[in-house]
Design brief:
8 helices; alpha/beta; 245 residues; Spore Coat Polysaccharide Biosynthesis Protein SpsA, Chain A; two-stranded antiparallel ribbon; 10 strands
Length: 245
Amino acid sequence: MDHLKTLNEEVTLVIPAHGRPEMTHRLLESLRKAGAGYQIILVDDATPEPLLDDPKHIQGLRLCILRNSTRVGPAASRNIGIGSATTRFVAFTDNDVEVSAEWLVRLHQHLAEAPKDVAGVGGRVLDDGSNLVGRYSTRFHLLDPHVHQGRVMYLVTANCLIRRDCILKVGGFNESFDTPGGEDPELSFRLLKAGYRLEFNREAVVVHHYESSWLKFFRLFQRYGRGCRKAMNVLAFPHKNSPEH
């Protein structure tokens, strides 16, 4: 109980969201079932219709909804959430995900006990078993933290926890990434360049709901590939994002 109290005081969960109201409800219900007592900031990125007409039905969640007047993308939306957070750690997930019961407990225990040079920790992203696209992604660990020669090279914002002061020191997410893909590796690369380390906790699990279309999957990873190339290219150039709104 003492650890849960500390977690609730030390963690803010930031969720950027555009569309997918049914999945958003499913995510929030999974958080409710997990007993989430920490602050949750849902940044509605100008969805044409509000994602939650009546969020009061999610009983017991400390839910704050921020709605963008125009669509700015997931990187800028996360910065808005970070700017509204005051906690030691900021967790991230997406609104096409459901969390497991011990998900954030595992991440928080890991990072709270880690050396100060560990900026963040990520966990596993599994599929829901409903289609081949998801099973392929799980089989090849496509949304897990990328590990090269024993070193975690980047975290994925579907499932991670990062020290808020480290995010602020490197300038937040790069808002030039205005569509999904590449913004989380790019932040991770800047954290590594600043001298921090990243770690992987395989017991911190979320479930990702994949669309069954292979064409959409191919286009998604084309976008991720372009984003990752851009992430490598922008490292040499400083940017002036500030999540301190």
